[in-house]
Design brief:
The chain is of the alpha/beta class and about 130 residues long. It has one domain (about 1-120): Oxidized Rhodanese, domain 1 (3-Layer(aba) Sandwich), CATH 3.40.250.10. It contains four helices and nine strands; from the N terminus they run βαβαββββαβαββ. The strands form three sheets. The chain has a five-stranded parallel beta sheet. Strands 3-9 form a two-stranded antiparallel ribbon. The longest helix has 11 residues, at about 80-90.
Length: about 130
């Protein structure tokens, strides 16, 4: 798995339109916190059980096939690493993780969206 900063991931996605951009956060995060433009939601862990999605790998394979690059993002860059490792174990060879995720690391005051991440870098995002 390769790791990209949010800005590197954005540039990679622009240069590689065949890549699939997957947001692995929960549906609630995706809808209510917002999400990167162009991302599709395939949760790694989701309500109501908050357990690893047993269909995650098959859903990603359906969205990306085995030959397209897959770029993963979560809130802070941790869940996306676990999801990426599962994809590599399943045979996907071009998996990228977005470092610091959508909301970034916690600040000294324990807030997100202030230190780093997709939104702090001013990259395109929205809410649906």
């Amino acid at each position: 798995m390769q790791h990209l900063t949010p800005k590197e991931a954005y540039e990679f996605l622009k240069k590689n339109p065949e890549a699939v951009f997957i947001d692995v956060r929960s549906e609630m995060e995706y809808l209510f916190v917002g999400h990167p433009e162009g991302s599709i939601l395939i949760p790694w862990v989701d309500a109501p059980d908050w357990e690893v999605n047993p269909h995650f790998v098959s859903h990603v394979k359906a969205a990306a096939s085995m030959s397209r690059p897959v770029v993963l993002i979560c809130r802070s860059g941790r869940r996306s690493v676990d999801a990426g490792l599962a994809l590599e174990k399943a045979g996907l060879t071009e998996v990228y993780n977005v470092l610091n995720g959508f909301e970034g690391e916690l600040s000294d005051e324990h807030h997100r969206n202030t230190v780093n991440g997709w939104r702090v870098d001013g990259l395109p995002w929205g809410q649906t």
